[in-house]
Amino acid sequence: MTTTVTADAGIVELMGVADADVDIEWLKQALRNAMMLELATIPPYSCGLWSIMDPKRDAVVHETIRDIIFDEMTHFGLVGNMLTAIGGEPVLTDPAVLPEYPGGLPGGVRPGLEVRLSGLTRSALDMYSAIEEPEQPLAKMDTSPSIGAFYRKVKQGFAAVKPKLSTDRQIDQRLSKHGSGKGIFPMKNLTEVQSALEVIMEQGEGTTTSPDQPTVKGDLAHYYAFRQLYHGRALEQDSSGKWGYTGEVIPMPAVYAAAEVPAGGWSHDQMNNPTGRPVSALLDAFNDSFSDMLSQLEFAWRTEDPAPRKTMVDAAIGHMSEMRKWGRLIVQIPLPDGSGWHYCPEFLLSRIDVPGARLAD
Questions:
Q1: pLDDT digits (tens, 9 = 90+) for 76-116
Q2: How far apart are CA 317 and CA 313, in angstroms?
């Protein structure tokens, strides 16, 4: 007997479905959750990145976090392609499904973990690595459920259901200038889907025997890269084969002290409400760019015409650049409460631009 998956089923509920009951609707709902899960990681990592005062001076830390963000963007895009390939439509502009900060990871993954938006601190790095933590880290043993466990069930689901795939609405966006393994490409068959899922899992948590990513030899999976930054020392293996953070010192960079964003944004902070202050325009510009980026991507995945899809994807990338520009300015502005902390981007949905409507005019 097939188990019915509710339209709003989270990852915990999906994980509870017996393997024999996984069907095409289960896969669609799992991939919608996976998209939100990947999207949820990008804002906290980006806030940490933008708070670094001198990216050139602290290039090791800056490039580590930057590369991870591009990995997450790639994962987000690949999962979106998988969803459209099996007949689903990504939903990116509904406030009800978007991640909230502070808050838990989408779908109930890592219960008890609160994801926050702030500048880079050791506490933030600890949170980043908790997001990415494998079921059995090489340098620490833990048995709590992981993102990787969810992706393994998705991988098994594709193998069992064997859905027909269409490339009609998939995005093709190569990111080779940001390193190998960071391209969003159409998947024509199940072998390509399975390979992409394997890369997503191993880029995040490594393998059971190695902390390295599978696509770039010597590049650590996200969990171990973040733990290196947290401990301030490189991960290395001793003569007995044991892994530990005992290698070269990795200094913590000088950062702008971007404070944690309160629930609902800075307007909910009576002391630091940005209304009427110059920072308000920057926060609004950032949120508009974030909203427009999501809108362009959502409608790119909804059109079967490759020309406007490419235009929408290019526009989304432009909005990402705007977000980086506004974000770096926001973290430099002190809060008016005199605490010494600074503002931090909010990643709030401010408006929905509907490119599909313009195409129909």
A1: 999 999 999 999 999 999 999 999 999 999 988 888 899 99
A2: 6
d(CA 299, CA 169) in angstroms, rounded, equals 10
Sign, CA dihedral 48-53-59-60, equals: negative
Does 11-255 match 268-361 in CATH topology? Answer: yes
For the chain, the structural domain boundaries read 11-255, 268-361
pTM above 0.70, yes or no: yes
Architecture of domain 268-361: Up-down Bundle (1.20)
CA 134 to mean position of chain CA atoms: 16
Q: Where are the alpha helices (DSSP H) in 11-58?
A: 11-15, 24-50
Cα–Cα distance list, 302 to 112, 169, 269, 352, 361 (Å): 35, 6, 38, 15, 17
pLDDT beyond 80 at 31:
yes
* The listed CATH number (3.30.1330.40, 1.20.1260.10, 3.40.50.150, 3.20.20.80) that belongs to domain 11-255: 1.20.1260.10
Q: Residue 329: how many CB atoms within 10 A of its CB?
A: 16
Residue carrying structure tokens 């990504």: 90
